Inverse folding.
């Protein structure tokens, strides 16, 4: 009996040692404003720059409705996730897939949540590789307009060098300084985008459909839905962020987390809506898929905004990469029985950054990638998966307000998932026709 007890104690100590090594559970000393920083960094990124372009693909009526409806739905679903983090006394769902396993079962939960979450986080890191490279290239072109053109591939490689270094930081709290800088800069370049756009108002613009072909306009509309979905991607890391906040019976983590999320969502609305609406109002259907590429004067300010984008997506990349590192390292030490070590961590993270670099250099189609992945992967995890889990676990009264609200979100989210990847894929195929690889 004593031997069995010793074995049990030893197993617990081993599991505790592993949890103290893994990126998500190794440090639970975060404050509420860490949640604000990480959520702003996760959400206000490449997505905000494409919103005027998405508006130009949808038009005023549909565009305004989709923007506001997306904000409301994702605000509601992120509240649900914060509430569900500790809904079982004495248990914390530190990872999205753990919540999924509780709702759907051990095996089914993994198969439902993990593939979607990995696709979201990996695709976001790839898109940020492209965004960082393009912004660096734009910065160089503004400052040195007469210089010999340099391939985009090289700029993406320069951006990746920062990720190869920062990816070896151990956990979420260790990237809090990077995340803080990224959050501040994201608000700054969003403000630059819409204020400089206002300076260029007064020109003759058209709000007509971008193409004369109806089929093209339909595909662009569907792609735009994916772009908007991509802009609201914070749900994929919200439980992992909440896991870093301490929790007691009197002060559960959801109090501090919700305070941080609420602040973050107010900031998000102050960034997204002015950029989307003012950018489209000023440039109409002539806006680029990244509004900073449309702006020209004052050159020093546009150059500064592009560098701010680079600095921000350096931090955003880390926020999305950390849960991936946690998944891979958890599998390596718990399932494959590798010893937790620095060598394991270096190998895993270096390979991941290298993978996102190669894919980013191969298919650097900013708008198409966001449209495709926004609908294919981000819509499920942000728009309706939290609602399905809520219905299974909370079991609200049938046809009551909570039941109806969740089903409405599920219907909207499923339609988004089924339709927007078609538009994103169309956009990628169209761009690929004239694209030369690694140029």
């Amino acid at each position: 009996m004593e031997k069995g007890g010793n074995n049990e104690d030893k197993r617990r100590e081993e599991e505790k040692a592993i949890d103290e090594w893994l990126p998500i559970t190794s440090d639970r000393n975060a404050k509420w404003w860490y949640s604000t920083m990480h959520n702003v960094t996760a959400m206000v990124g490449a997505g905000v720059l494409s919103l005027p372009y998405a508006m130009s693909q949808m038009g005023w009526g549909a565009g305004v409705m989709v923007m506001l409806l997306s904000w409301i739905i994702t605000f509601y679903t992120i509240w649900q996730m914060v509430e569900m983090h500790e809904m079982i006394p004495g248990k914390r769902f530190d990872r999205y897939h753990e919540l999924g396993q509780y709702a759907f079962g051990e095996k089914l939960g993994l198969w439902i949540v993990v593939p979607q979450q990995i696709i979201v986080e990996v695709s976001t890191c790839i898109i940020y590789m492209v965004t960082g490279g393009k912004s660096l290239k734009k910065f160089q072109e503004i400052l040195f307009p007469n210089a010999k053109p340099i391939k985009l591939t090289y700029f993406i490689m320069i951006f990746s060098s920062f990720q190869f270094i920062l990816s070896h930081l151990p956990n979420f709290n260790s990237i809090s300084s990077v995340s803080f800088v990224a959050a501040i800069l994201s608000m700054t370049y969003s403000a630059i985008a819409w204020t400089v756009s206002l300076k260029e108002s007064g020109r003759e613009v058209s709000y007509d459909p971008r193409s004369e072909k109806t089929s093209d306009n339909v595909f662009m509309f569907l792609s735009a839905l994916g772009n908007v979905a991509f802009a609201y991607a914070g749900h994929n890391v919200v439980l992992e962020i909440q896991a870093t906040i301490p929790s007691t019976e009197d002060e559960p983590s959801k109090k501090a987390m919700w305070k941080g999320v609420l602040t973050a969502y107010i900031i998000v609305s102050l960034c997204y809506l002015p950029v989307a609406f003012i950018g489209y109002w000023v440039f109409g259907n002539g806006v680029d898929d990244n509004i900073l590429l449309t702006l020209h004067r004052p050159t020093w300010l546009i150059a500064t905004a592009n560098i701010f984008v680079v600095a921000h997506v350096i931090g955003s990349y880390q926020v999305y990469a950390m849960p991936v590192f946690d998944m891979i390292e958890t599998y390596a030490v718990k399932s494959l029985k590798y010893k937790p070590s620095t060598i394991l961590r270096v190998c895993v993270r270096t390979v991941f950054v290298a993978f996102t670099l190669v894919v980013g250099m191969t298919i650097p189609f900013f708008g198409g990638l966001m449209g495709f992945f926004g609908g294919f992967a981000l819509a499920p995890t942000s728009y309706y998966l939290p609602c399905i889990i809520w219905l299974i676990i909370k079991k609200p009264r049938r046809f009551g307000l909570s039941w109806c609200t969740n089903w409405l979100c599920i219907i909207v989210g499923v339609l988004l998932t089924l339709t927007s990847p078609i538009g994103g894929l169309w956009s990628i195929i169209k761009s690929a026709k004239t694209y030369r690889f690694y140029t």
In short: The mean pLDDT is 84.
